[in-house]
From TrEMBL, chains A, B, C, D, E, F:
Matches recorded under PANTHER family: 2-KETO-3-DEOXY-L-RHAMNONATE ALDOLASE, PHOSPHOENOLPYRUVATE CARBOXYLASE FAMILY PROTEIN
Protein name as catalogued: 2-keto-3-deoxy-L-rhamnonate aldolase
Keyword Transcription regulation: no
Enzyme Commission no: 4.1.2.53
Biological classification of the source: Bacteria, Pseudomonadati, Pseudomonadota, Alphaproteobacteria, Hyphomicrobiales
Family: Belongs to the HpcH/HpaI aldolase family.
Length: 254, 254, 254, 254, 254, 254
């Protein structure tokens, strides 16, 4: 695989499912890519991925024929530029609640004049086959920023966040939304409050001409959100695949 | 979990399914154990496990509440004693074709007077909670040797192999059986030739009063072999769980 | 071991010694746990622990029967939420000098409404056996925040820091105290200035109804501080155990 | 090798070339040191180095007879103090654009009264052979801070940044300079704009009595900058050595 | 890259240079592949490669567009089948001195009826895209065995070794030849004795219709041996590239 | 540290204690070396060391100022030559019971004309500073082979084993001796049978003019054996140092 693929697909209006990996095993990420996923996401926020496994994972995902996205730790904007240097095609940043958060996210991930990303994508250049001068020209468009909208504050600021140049997409975190919207009382990603917030987010994304994505526990939920305008979905995780498979085999046996 | 559990269960006539792990991720092995498997096997022959991941994997499996078994590389009898020192409760040895192979297997895995295993199970002692003197007394019974019967030669020698003191079980390798019984022409673990060999093996095991186990691609096949007297089964692998889950989720989505 | 144990013990007034590990070897941490320590702390600030070894270390400590605490790097609040997701029962944060520092610490480690911790404790849930909904209810109480008081500024703000909801404990860093209180002139964790600061800290903790802990080089010092009201102690480190043992053996031999 | 060497050489006016390593292989770093380099730099910003490889790399570089410097990720001041604890003799910090950036850099890397570095250099003490009390006295002089000047804003503030106590050196990042000075249009580290900026930087360094260093792709460029007053140079990278050697051998063969 | 490439090239009479890697860094191996090498060899005998780095290295080399070969440790025939399962296209076995050595090598690397390789190439199948049934049919031809001829005994037996079905190639080890031919007195891979042995080896290979390869320190030596009929060459190593580049840059600078 | 040191000391009649490491942490091994041990041994037989940790450990031990010895797995003669290539100064081989075992050990570890070790010590050359031609001349003397005498059979053959050129030393394994001499009934390294065997071994070593070493759990036992003529002692292990230190600190605290 050469070049970038994720931004092109999403900008063309395609729906893109992503594998979601937290187990810090590049081989697991590669196998998911090889099953035909156009994108695989490595989770550094709540998953066990860290820099070395992420660097190896990005290469493994590309070798498996997919685009790599990384969810960075909260506030980990410095991590964002490092994983872009390593060949990621997108960054999901948690808890982009304010204009300031969004600015910091853009600063770390877009080259001037949009942001202040520092130059050094030699590994990205090796993996994509995009030569260095071309990379500078292409990167601001080809590398996507997903701002996670997952708190009451973020909902309030969602229009301004998504309107900001350099923010390419919203990404819904339904579990945190359910917690913050109930002040910590309830964990229910399918609650009415979450659903209303999702409406607000998709409206803001469409108004700003930006992509909308979401973490969804199941393909069914993803299909429902696709109807409402979302295009990028985490449809299930490595842990879930493994646990479900192991559990089902054992049950058949018993 | 303290003490040993695998030998007790199998000697009591229980059927024991084992998870089968080749992906060299101790966390994957642990998650399978946590789904309720009484045993998880780490594969060093055709899987990607090596010593450090096996050492970590054995501890992870025990932390997940299961017994750990290791399939060693062909001829890797020295590896066998190392993984027993690290807390494994069973060893599956590939290609035990002759009396000499079986003797070398026993020598590496059983203490005198049965074999010549060298003393040093300090990690096993930590993980099982069995103190060192007790470990010496318990180990020859508590740690199981599975001789893989998977060639024409092994079938010929199966009675003598299984009669040998220190060999606790037969373990059928149906893919290699199908290849060797057809002189390399066919890979079909469910062929007539393989089925006939399986009859020979179970008969030999029952005659010798030894346990019979098999690698089975599916729970269905395992249930069939259970009817025929087998008690220890590799019912599916980490790779298979992951690929099947990832593939099914993608299909639902498309 | 299932569930949480550290908060219960300390809230019950028990004295809890913790092993202190900087060598980035999960096995070392596990062995210390197995010697009977109720708690083992992994040091990411001045020790060599990083995320992968910390993730593995937390699991190893729990397998060894103890609670895991992590000292995060200075300002590493994002790290704090990640290691809590991985199953830590406590976080020691260096250089909590101001109200702002304390707020950021609480935000990262407590769920709403106290803080703004993001949801995702799947590894913690596996390791503790506490199901996800229960984890949300339990975590704000069961997971402890230790604010390190180790500068002149922190001493000035100690009452306000410890009064803050979500800050569960003070933790004294005597070496840094001695340096900052002498403007860099002296390293003496047992100096008069440090002793006076310790008095201020314990008074503030007792006034706020919070736990008091300290790094102590020796069990003797820990016993002295226990008299003065402290309950959580780092009594010695992996490096110290190893160096002292190696040195003593060599001396006997010479 | 015992003690520190980098600060002494540079303060004595010597020119010091540094190897530049991004491949996250401590052995590669060690081999470069063994070729006679007085200094080897590990790159965590655009290279693949992370904490464990950096910790191992610092030890390997010292074993190879050289001083170790680390370029930290942007804003990674907490990382700076950790790698100093691990034995680094210098820190290169990217994007020191403002007085606030410079203050944060000094705070993390110099002990009081200059900064607020936290105490804990036990690994540094082991590797350098400098005992702990002596380390406290020596470190503020012996450990060098290199502030990267690589944006329009930084050029504007360069006098104030370099005048700050605790900032020991400027380090030019010519690629980022070329991008920021052309608002993202051009990548040309040898452009006129960059050259003019370099003049400004060297003038500021000389005025402040501080060291000047630069990343230079080639020994030739380094020699030119040496004429202009620079003394510390990254003259080529591990990746470049490897690619050039492999390419040349293949060409000879074809 | 899909499928196999090395055997096809060599059987078509092409000359194939191979990179030679001992530094146990898969990234180094990948970079050499990306410079255009059709083949990269990982050295487990005298290099620092072990199983996990070899598994990762094979995947990295394929991702870089080249075929992977592994030199196994002396007598490591069990390792041979494991690295073939992991996707290697060739095995170089040291010290194939006798018919028995050659038989053991073939047994481990060729499926029945030629050898006794055990079935399990799932990783090879993923990496090459060759489905499992096809792999069984293709492997005995597509995977190459290189017998190292590097002792007096081996020279004596070279005709019989190379005549054996399943041995695909001779590979000259000139350093060991020089030592064994002088009974340990001299290390000179270009000595007269070595040259005479090389004549014997190439004659035997041509008589048996087998490929001839050699370790050559330099492209110049490789070109000379190509004239004499050799087709597979290790023309330089990762360590040599790195040391030469680092040394040359430093010299220019001084 | 440059050159070799272990053989010189032992041949000069010095008593040499060795640290004994099984925890697979190179840093642990290095710390023990830094406490003043002239030698540190890495245990691959019953410890958790494997190749990558052994390679790193050897370098770390040398950096710490000591000579590195490796105990290889039983029958792991191929491992022996690899760790010598990596810079070890001695190899302890378990279960050298027969002349054939001893021959295989010598073959792997001594260059012609004594043995058949294959050439490739580039890492050893880097670490010791001994250039390659000199290494060939020096190695057979400078690198020591310790044959473990630990079974009834070995006792019977001990004179012939120790008389063999290329076998430099006997090394007593008292635990296995106690087990084999009682046919598996007793584990008592201080039994009368073991003591008598020790007398036989020291007599054989002195007759053959070879060094005698032993694993001893305590410095006290080592001093006793020194009286009887032994000169090389494993006086305690990393695990023991750590457990004893942790346990003692906890006791003081309670």
């Amino acid at each position: 695989m050469t070049g970038f693929s994720l931004a092109d697909r999403l900008r063309a209006g395609e729906t893109v499912p992503t594998g979601w990996c937290g187990m810090a095993s590049p081989l697991v990420a590669e196998l998911i890519a090889r099953e035909g996923y156009p994108c695989v996401t490595l989770d550094q926020q709540h998953g066990l991925y860290d820099m070395p496994t992420t660097f190896a994972g990005i290469a493994a995902i590309r070798a498996g024929g997919a685009a790599a996205v990384v969810r960075i730790p909260q506030g980990g904007f410095s991590v964002a530029s490092r994983v872009l240097d390593a060949g990621a095609e997108g960054i999901i940043a948690p808890m982009i609640n304010t204009i300031e958060d969004a600015k910091a996210f853009v600063a770390a991930t877009k080259f001037p004049p949009i942001g202040a990303r520092s130059w050094g994508p030699s590994r990205a250049s090796q993996l994509t086959g995009v030569h260095k001068g071309d990379y500078l020209k292409a990167a601001n468009d080809a590398v996507l920023t997903f701002a996670m909208i997952e708190t009451r504050t973020a909902i309030k600021n969602v229009d301004a966040i998504l309107a900001m140049p350099g923010i390419d997409a919203a990404f819904v975190g339904p579990s945190d939304l359910s917690i913050t919207l109930t002040d910590g009382r309830t964990l229910d990603p399918h609650s009415k409050e979450v659903d209303a917030a999702i409406d607000t987010i998709i409206a803001a994304a469409q108004k700003a001409g930006k992509i909308a994505g979401a973490y969804t526990a199941t393909p069914e939920r993803a299909l429902e959100l696709e109807q409402r305008g979302f295009r990028f979905f985490a449809i299930a995780s490595d842990t879930a695949f493994l646990q479900a498979g192991a559990s089902a085999a054992l049950k058949k046996f018993k």
